[in-house]
Design brief:
heterodimer; A: alpha/beta; Rossmann fold; 5 strands; 23% strand; B: mainly alpha; 5 helices
Chain lengths: 123, 119
Amino acid sequence: MAKILVCEDDFMVLKTVEHRLKLDGYTVLAVTDGSKAIEALKVPDSDIGLIITDLLMPFISGLELIHQVRVELNRETPIIVLSKLGNEDTVLEAFNLGADDYLTKPFSPNELSIRVKKLLLRR
Amino acid sequence: MKQYNLDYLKEMSGGDAAFMDEMIGYFLENSPSVITRLDQCLQSGDWEGFRFAIHKFAPNLAIVGLNSLAEMASRLEQLSGVSGDHGLIPATYDGFRERLSSALDEMNLDFSHLLKPKS
């Protein structure tokens, strides 16, 4: 099963996403900010198959993380952004930067599973 | 009827009782500091800080099934944005805070076994 990098600074959201993905059989690397996500992606042979990231985070935002993944690291790893209702403009910006899909918090476990599976199958 | 609803947390956790307890315990431990932060931001007129804190708190409210409070939090987030009507925040926040305190009282009672003893 694929390894998924989850980047979210809120403890409860991070833990629930991590728990759910582990139940689905994935290996999960959970980090609390964008700079830690970049570090994880730079590890040789990290074999991260999918990135799930929040948008509003301290230090490096989700948008900055997407930019770094696509431009500086030149990676095509699929990216799902976590957003809240009412943040559509930021989600559009995320898509412009190269995000592949988004989930609005709170999302159902089935919705999470389906979107993750869909993007991993596309690789 | 309880103010909270754990159906979502149960669904996300696959019914893992230990995980649910961890999340509820964290919510109860962490919420007072969020309220303090929001109070401070309101008093100092730090709307950006207020918006960030309430933005982060709203999903936590939804995770423990305090859905009407999560909706109020989203409303407060809108009001505290750059183009929001900041004048409406104090009254809206008062209502939010009162209902949140009531919900926390209920949850603290129901889940007292999860709380760490205060030193």
